[in-house]
Amino acid sequence: MESHQPPSSREDFDVAIVCALPLEFDAAVSVLDEVWDDANGPALGKARSDLNTYVNGRIGAHNVVLVLLATRMGKVSAAISASDLRHSYPNVRMALLVGICGGVPLPGNIEILLGDVAISSSLVQYANSPTYFGRRYPDGFLRKSGAADNLAGLGRELAGLINMLQNTELQRKALRERTVANLRALQQCDPDRYSMPDPATDRVYRADYRHKHQAPDVECLCREHSQETDPVCEKAMESSCDDLGCDDGFLLSRRRLEERIAAFANPSDPDTAEAGDGAISAALEPAIHIGRVASGDTVMKSGVTRDVIAASEDVIAFEMEGAGIWEHVPSLVVKGVCDYADSHKNKKWQRYAAGTAAAVAKAIMSLVPVADRRDLGGAGFRKPEWLVPFPPDPDFVDRPDISEWLKEKSQVPGARAALIGLGGIGKSQLAIQFAHSVRDRSHVFWLSAATRATLEESFRAVAERLKLPSDGKQDGVLEQVGRWLADESNGRWTVILDNLDDPSVLTEDDPRLLKALPQANNGFTIVTARSVQGAELLAGGTKNTYAIEPMSEADSVRLFQTKLREPAPDEDAERVVRILGGMPLAITQAAAYINRKAPRSSATEYLRLFEEDDERRASLLGGEHKDLRRADGASGTVLGTWSITFEQVQRERPAAVDLLCLLSFFDPQSIPEWALRPWYSPDPSQMPSVPTETGLSSFSSLLASLKGKQKVALSSDPEKKLETWGFLLREGTAPKAPATPTPGKHSSKPSKSSRLSFFKKNKSSSSRSAPTSPYTPGSPGSPGTPGTPGTPFSPSTTTVSSHYAEDELERDLEALLAYSLLIPTARGVLKMHPLVRHCTQLWLAQSDTRNLWRQRFYLVMVQNLEAPLADGRSHMGLIPHLTSILTEEPRDPLTARLWVILACFVYSTAHNSHLNANRSDAFKQSELKLAGKILEVSERTLGPNDKLTLICLDRVAQSLNDCGEHERAYEAWEELLAREEGADRDGKWVIKESRLAYARTLAERGRVEEAERVTRELLAQREAELGGRAIDTLWSRANHADVLASMGRWDEAHAIAMELLETNWAQAGDSHLHMQVINICVSIELKMLEGRDPAEAEPLLREMVATVEKFPDNCLGWFAYTPVGHFHDILSQCLAKQRKFSAEGTVLARGMEIMVKTISMPELNPPSLVDDLLEGVADAARQKLLNAVIDHLREDEEHPVEFYYGIANIARRLYMQHRVDEAFTLTDALVNHLKAHPVFGVDHKLTGLMVNFRKDLKWIEDRFPKRRQKEWYRPDLLGM
């Protein structure tokens, strides 16, 4: 017997057997001829970060490593394990994926039985849908061409082996005979596990016959289900066919199976058995099938889908791990059929199938020649040249999607591929890892493209390594290297062009460098770059570029933990990688800091320091960390590496750096582009009014208002506004901006330097002091002394062409997007990496300009609040960007005026975005605390009589009242009323409105006489000052009527309400007060219902409803969130109290009909979608159209509130058409969308309104069960 020496290292293994399940692994271990490991485990160890389980052994002359996947089944698990395998066993040249699979029972003209073995000639990827084999493009669906378009090929060695097994009788016979021998030996060793089950249990049903409860006496919904998509209960899925009563009449007849059953029943029959003791009958032998195997992420459990994919892709089996292994190691799938990939799963055959697969795998190994390790390349082979200055990272965490993309690109002759992303995102590390993965089969050369000098030096190093003749001139070196690379006889090569961040390094006017990188068939070039521009040029377009995003949280945690000496608690590790935004360099830097400071430091301590203050954060992000896998001169810190990017952007387009400064004050996750427009096209009309007084400057007026008794007026004059706010405007939006850019003449570089000249690294000093500000006192745009106005702008020069502004914004965004400083996430929405934001803020702080940029951010946001809404914008979209300002406390009047406006908006949005029922006591207390803080800042900085201060005091009074502190609320309102003498015209208006709020509160607390006096006096005052038809007068009249209704003076209140309902509000203006007035009319109607005899109230309510129906646009448009409108609803309640139920239903139906006509339908794509849905099309088309409407709710873009009311109106119309199920399906989709929406959410007022809309619709449906028979709507009972 031949003796075999144990291997001395893991490098002596060139074959791997990979198993996903322990039962597969057991079978594979059982066929080993020898196991090299002892009882204590693998003697040769594994790489540090490798999570696989290994057994080292021998099959014949091959050293074989057996792998058990760490996380069981699936291609992702397999891909990770394959990557780890290559780290621990670098010389593995092929892998056999051995185990069990689902077979196609009748592929073509052959029969596959349980226990047969499928060997892959190629792999195709699948999902449980026959339409998976293709790609969805904007203009349609393109089918893939098959296996070649799904996964890489076998590789030469395995392709040759498969060719011999398929096409030569000698090898087919050898494989079959050795398989039988191996299986017999396995069964003799462990007959209980690996003997064949009774073939009578090998049953395959018709593809469309489902595994579910069949017996008529079983009470289960799935018994009635017949469609492929109908659900099956969990109990049925876990039960056997016998238990469920699956009908044998649906079994498929198979000749081979009948022969096997006969042989199994009569093993000694001379007609079915071979000669010799222990011989396996020919009918009982497992057949070996070679063909395409489908690999997917989920278990195939559908006979129908199985057959569709099998027919279209010519596959013989389905499994789950091959696609993951295939792209990392040349592989064969060798799997035994244990079921038929349908719902009738059969676990009885799993161990036998695993045994037959292991027997075939061992037989295959006996046919594979052993590689001669003394000369891996054979005669005439040239050892690949290796010129990469970086070792592999033992802690590297692979990103399979990127690695697989690179491998796919590398198989295209002459391909170039570019990895693009922020500095520190991991581009070079991925390139290093790829280089090491191909070094045994390709020359690899690393070229540093940071500068032209480093690139030329890299080419010289390549020429020296290749021993190319040179005349000593650079031209000669480049020509020689280019000629060598273009010569295919030199073999396969890979060039990595690292750090091509400056496109000018490779320019068209100097083609020498480009010519030195030919696109030869035997070559592959990888480019790493921060800028899209140069990388796209070299790679040949966007299809050959990969924009690298931060690591996933799971991968980030894994990287962080592997870099630490002592693992951190998972929760702390997750928090660290979260604040670092999945940035590999920052994570590595954080781990190095913790290791260096251990045991005094930890992940918890790092988090505390990071969140402590700017100086600590700068120290953590700027602390130098040495890494042998980073190029010489490349910074090992996040701050350092991004300084390079900022300097490059500043050279190319300084104005883009200004935009970055502004963006650093936004929430980085979702920045709407429309919110940036005021920075490029400021509008004085949208800027805050400023105090002004004869003989005083604007700033002096601000100071004068602080004295409290000084009466200071606010000016809306554009000149006065610009005098105050002009220094905060963007350069180029004031003087000398061209009306429109001249085609072909526009320069992308503004003439003035950027405000961020402090980004330039100061190498002359290690001091932490900030560089000098680029501003000089008195210059245009100079901030001067903080809190004082700068040089005024002329109003005549501030208007900027909208086209020019849009072009400037687009150019600045393109510059930031090109360097991945911004990332587009949806149409018109941008994202910034949190560390980019942190670093920009740190640089602003170091340059002492952060306060200036904060003021600019405030001014931009105030203009956004004042700008008219259009294009689907919503002020709600600004809230995530403003909540952080609440922690700030401005000290100077200018900043405070902006801050108070924004803080009041945040307060009002929070207050108005929650239904009263959803506002808990804690929520109300937090509102009161916020209102108090805003008031304190406003009084301290703007003075007690400023309009904003008066508004804040009113908010405090209302918050006190909400919290039940009524006496303190009254005191606050009385103090507000006492300030009327010192207030200007706008302030007096605020005080008058507060008097109404005060009166409403008095009425609510039962002090109706006082409330009536306050509202009557204010109404008389406004009628005298403004006239009877002014909007403020009408508003006061409505409040007075409401108090009269509270006093039981019904006729007076009703008369006023009727007058208000008939008012022409188009002439009155102010839609907000219009809505408030109509709400008060509803309040009056409700008070009549509650406080008066129903029979007496009914005529008055009918009169109001008749008026509402006469002017529906005037009165009903505000109640889009109710199915029928409040007026009809209250009248129906009055009728119900009198037991007039038929009339009640008719009024509700009439209200719904009016609402359907009044509320606008949403604008959907295509424009005819809503009409098509509501035209009563066939049932089959209805669901498709309804789904198309619901799909608009799944889009990421933010919609205005009116859009959602329009969707509700579609549901209202469907309900009126007696399409009740569709109506509720749509309302459910609407509610679920709002609950999950980042801007709205579960507690938002709109969400609550839509929840109530559905409840009200359900109440109507339950109250009028005959409505479906159209018997509830009787106009004769309407009485109108």
UniProtKB/TrEMBL annotation:
Pfam families: PNP_UDP_1 (PF01048)
Gene3D superfamilies, per database record: Nucleoside phosphorylase domain, P-loop containing nucleotide triphosphate hydrolases, Tetratricopeptide repeat domain
Domain Nucleoside phosphorylase: 15-141
Domain of life: Eukaryota
Comp. bias (Low complexity): 732-757, 764-779, 788-802
Stretch list, region Disordered: 732-804
Annotated protein name in UniProt: Nucleoside phosphorylase domain-containing protein
